[in-house]
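Quick question: what would this complex look like in 3D?
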Amino acid sequence: MDDLLAEFLAETSESLAALDLALVRLEQTPGDKPTLALVFRLVHTIKGTCGFLGLPRLERLAHTAESVLVRVRDNEITATPALVSAVLHALDGIRSILAGLAAAGAEPAGDDAALIAELEQGAYAASTPPPASTTQATATHERPAAEPAADTASAGQTIRVEVGVLENLMTMVGELVLTRNQLLQLARGQKNPGVETEPFTAPLQRLSQITADLQEGVMKTRMQPIGQAWNKLPRLVRDLSHDLGKPILLELRGAETELDRQVLELIKDPITHMVRNCADHGLESLAARRAAGKPDAGTISLDAYHESGHIVIEIADDGAGLRLGRIRAQALAQGLTTHSALSAMDDASIMRFILQPGFSTADRVTSVSGRGVGMDVVRTNVERIGGIIEVASTAGRGSRFTLKIPLTLAIVAALIVETAGERFAMPQIGVIELVSVGNAHVERIDNAMVLRLRGRLVPLIRLHDVLALDPPVLRSGEPVAPDPIIPDPIIPDRIIPDPIIVVARIAAAMVGIVVDRVFDTEEIVVKPLAPILRGLSVFGGNTILGDGSVIMILDPGGVARAAGLHGRDIETRAAVAREIATSASLLPMLLVKAGGSLMVVPLSLVARLEQVPREKLERAGDRMVTQYRGRLMPLAPISGALDPARANQSVLVFSDTDRATGRDRAAGLVVDEIVDVIEDELRVQLASSRPGTLGTAIVAGLAVEVIDTGHWLTSVFPDWFLATNTAARPTPRLLVVEDSAFFRQMLVPVLAAEGYEVTAAADAAQAFALRDAGKLFDAIVSDIEMPGLSGLEFARAVRAGTTWRDTPMIALSGRITPNDVAAGREAGFIDYVEKFNRDTLTASLRRCLSSEQPPASAERPASGENPAMRPRGISAEALAA
Amino acid sequence: MSAVATITLVTLSVGGQLCGIPVGDVRDVLSARSINRIPLASPVIAGNLNLRGRIVTAIDVRRRLDLPPAAPGAAAMSVVTEHEGNLYALLVDSVREVVTLAASGVEAAPPTLHAAWARYGAGVFQTPDGLLVTLDVSRLLDLAH
């Protein structure tokens, strides 16, 4: 193809794009002279060039369009929507001829009679009715934020440059940046006495500055206004408006915001798709809008602006908003989630389902959208270039999609991290924050490590695992400073000074990537991977650091996928974790303030709450007491001292039966303030080193300390938990199977205090390990909801085995319904006790073992008789209760 | 017959075997330098190295040929070759010299040759120093093979 033709093709396609915009504008303001003049001039130029180049088909079409426009210009006819449609169709015809021309180098054969007839008919129709008020219900309006750009002013000031030339220039600048970085690194390294670096300092600084300026300048040449990606939208929306019968206003703001042309190309289609979605799904029908008291015309708005090295593009509509109920139903129908996971999700998480593959809530497949391919593709494309997409919606008010995209892909800010002695770069865009493992709430849910971060659960990925690197250990002989070195709670057998969790955003979900160290941020030049390495999806590229070493650039999404977490999984897992966290064991707790910190204690342990007037507090020896129900009650202030300013002291009263005397006794724990009773899961996340607290938990989103009641009660009654009547009967042995460390911690001392020898197991597997080791117990207390084998399965397995077959089992559960009890009995439990109901449990154990005297291990019932089927006196009443 | 077709090779030693690649394919000869390893990559890929600001993927030719790894601390060199616009460094035990051989001297691989050599060898020459195998670089770099 000759240069002239190539030039013509490039210029004409630009003119056509400008024409689309101008025609839509003309339709809205049919009398607008400058627009009309622009349209006329553009069509005229196309026609003229076609004639010059000898392209008869194009010339004829352009000529017909021009003659129609002449009549509009001369006020003979008005630019009605039908007429504008006809001209737009003619332009589409010109486009398809141009495409053929570009491919074959010659005008393709074809007949444009229909288009020409449409134009002539449009002109005729427009001339018959007098030009009256023209805006129809289906007219599209574009309100340009800026004045139509001065089309004529800058013509002589620009030149066309091959994109390849710019790309090449950019590569060279990348190399220059690297070389500059290396020089700077060298200069820093040379700063020792005896080496004269003085003469280099100034030129180096200048070089550095010039490089930065050059980089910026070259970047600028690649920058294009985002309006380039938008210029097809007015036409698109106009057509959609006609097709869907919905009047639509399109508002474009920030079209002059610039971004790298490579990025621009990549987001063009996603944006178009989202606008299409807004028109089709987002905006209601005309009738629905009227019923809702909204203006007839729906609005779709696009806003673009720069924000900290990124471009933010917001695409919003004022339609009905996302229908959460529908999304829920659809997500369930498509098996993307479960009922229980859904119920634990917040609205934002539910909205994100629309970004998942294959998801569509459109009632029907329209020509516009609803085929279920779309938003997930948008999301994939956006994420591929390191962008993020967010969804927000208000019922009845509309939806808003926010894209945050890097300005350029060539040079990015990255965090340099190290794991297992290797360094990697992690693009900073996705990084939300860095958390030191030492200060983090790391816990295990369902065999996965998660970080609890301000109430959100973030799945953790150990980078060295994903990359199959050896976990580093300190080199032998290397002195280990005890102070800054903490054992890694994630990998106990490994000691790292203080691992860091890089919390990164992948889609709306977050993952925590655990690395050994984080260095600073560097501007890195992204170099594509060699083809031989393309299969490694955890890496997005490689780069050269200032010290000359080559490092890999991590793709957080790829890392998550390699760790077995897919976008959807991360979100679902987080939801499941939330669900586990909320439904597992809701426990009523007393939230108190003591010594300036928030503390909780399970409500069931507390007998009463009292306010004791200050003057009623007395000292007896070194102990504080008060008169309580006719007796002296010892008090223990949690904060160590009483607040003298308070008129009343809040006291948590614990009561117990003194085994020596058989009389009730009470002890009080003095707190500053009783804040609230809350219901939440109680899971100790950090063990405490301070006596008096068991550790730290997150309850209702607050970090609270869990009061170690045992510590305080034994401080006032040293024998509070000690069994006193141990004289005659041998200590019954109990096995407690309970997955929650907290419950184990609570149960073991409580039961020990009742005079049992208690062994604890975290799950069925541990329990069976004890069985296999030949341990025998007089009774087993087991949790029902456990990971691995559930309590019911555990009981069945115990009953099916031999050694423990006849050992009575008591179920502990957070929930007790007649069905649960029946299932428990069927599985082989003889009693079913509510968790944390200490009295019921001890009573149940007493009854259960009294019918078992002497201890089961000494004498077994004859085999063949299943004791589970034979209620032992207690079971019937206990189960009926 | 004055113009005899010749082939000029850079000769290398890998695991005691003499081999060569066409001199035109060689962009650089490097002494041992630091290589940054690439997790999860095929063991054949030794890592990346920085050659004057360009990233070069280093290929462990011994591993590629299923030969035992070199003794620790043994001297190593590499030849840099360009393949489809990307640079690759072939790690070998040593780079020896440039020889010109008559193209007609090419022979079929003897059956005694290690199978890997036969797989990645383009041809075999008899030289005063012994059997010389010419390596087919594109086959070496095609990890799917």
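Answer marked as accepted. The CA atoms of residues 81 and 168 of chain A lie 46 Å apart.
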